[in-house]
Each structure stands twice: as C-alpha cells, then as structure tokens.
Model the fold of this input.
Amino acid sequence: MLRRKQKHFLLKSFSLLSVVRGYNILIIVIAQYLTSIYILAPELPIRHVVLDLNLLMLVLASAAAIAGGYIINNFYDREKDLINRPRKTMLDRLISQRTKLSTYFILNFLSVVLASYVSFKAVVFFSLYIFGIWFYSHKLKKYPVVGNIVASTLAVIPFFAVFIYYRNFDIVIFVHATFLFLLIAMRELVKDLENLKGDLAQNYRTIPVVYGEGLSKRMLTFMSLLTLVPAYFLITQFEIGYMYLYFYGSMLALAFFVFVLWKSKEKLHYMILHGILKFVIVIGVFSIVLIDVPLLLKRFV
Done:
C-alpha cells in the first residue's frame, strides 16, 4: 500500500513539473543570474551578485509568476493540447483542474510576496506581469500576430525585472534583448505551425490558421534574417569577449533552420525546427560566460 501511495505521489509530482515546465524555469533562473553577473553588473564581484538577497527575491518572484503562467496556459489549452500533445496531456491530467487553479493562485500570491521584499514598485511590476500572462492566455493568444508579439514580450519581461533593479541602461542590453526577442518570436510562430491541427479544431486564429503555412514560412525566414542585425552590432560594436563564437554559431544554426523550414511539411518537421530554436536559446544562455572568460578563473571576492 505504501509503495502504491509513493508511486502515485511521484506520478503527481512529475505531472506538476510537466505542467509548470520546471526545466524551462530552471533555465530562466540561470539566465537571470548569468545576465546579472556578466551584462548588468559586470563591475561587481560575483559573490556580491550571487549573495544579493534582493536579486534572489526577484528571481524567485519571476519563477513563481512564470510557473503560474504555465499553469493558467495549460488550463485554457487543455482541449487543444489533447489533440496536439496527447501523451503530455494525459500526464498533466493526473493533476485535477481544481488543484491546478489552487496552485496557480498560490504561486501568484507567492510571487507578489517575494517582490514585496524588494520594493512596492516590484510588487506593481509583478502584479502587472501576472495580469498580462492571464490576459494573454485568456484572450490574446487566439489572435494572429498580436498573440505572438505579446507571448514573445512576456517571455523577455522577467529579464527586465533584474535590468530595472541594477539600473543599467547600456544600449548593449537592448541589443541582446532584441536578438533574444526575435528568437522567441520565431519559436512562438514555429509552435503555431506545430500545433496547427489543434488550433484549427479549437478555432484559434493563429498566423498559420489565418494566413497559411506559406506566409508563416516567409515570416520565419524574414525574422531569421533580422537576427543578423543585432548579431552584427554585438560582434562589431560591443565588447562581448568570446561570445562572438556563439553568434557565428547561431547564424549557421539559423541558416540550417531556414533550409529545414522550407522542406517541412509535417508536424515532426516543425518539432525539429522548434528543437533547433530551443537549442540556440539555451546555448545562448550558457554562452553569456564567454563575455568575460577570466572572470570564471577568479575567486569570489
């Protein structure tokens, strides 16, 4: 009996992690810290950044709000996901809708409480962010173009929490953010292509549904070319250390992406394209350390 309960508990734990996409949140947390150390506050000792309690509260508040966002998105998309991702949906359904909503409200409340440790402005920031995620999941995601822009913006906003905290308004930060925004916007459009069947069934007016796969592919090709602009400026105009290797590599990856894109006809192909973009984004997170390699060799001071 005990083993059965333990197995049931583990399955529910995996289900909850699947719903909140714990692996994505972990990457975001790492990205926020690396961005703080190497881009936003490069003049501060690593120890000062890592042990900064205010930064920790902002990162945890972001993680809680994002986890809540995944839950509410899962709640609204349950019928569509049953068509697009039947296996994942069956795992997610081990957690009841009531439990998901309860966890959603708890996470949002926790996010605001954590933000309150930093300042009232942080509370307002995360309250608006939480509302934005809900409004996107409830209304905006069903509209073409607008839904994609809002989704991409919401994905970048957590970085602005630490950006505002350090009051660093260097233009290089906006160029990095532009590159990331374009990659995320491409990923959102590829997800729309990947989920075309479910979107059609549930009357989601995404770009592929309204304008077709051909225009979606042309838009993705154009956005791939647009990424060359911030990449060029980052390589030629700013001090980014050895991170230039990442941008050259990302150009090759995006060239391969465009090649595969125009050969794509099935869901599996779009899943591969999604994987390529996700790989480029994740590698980009860890490539931030290449901005100042000697910093890796120093002790915390």
In short: Residues 101 and 123 are 21 Å apart (CA to CA). The chain has two domains: 12-167, 170-301.
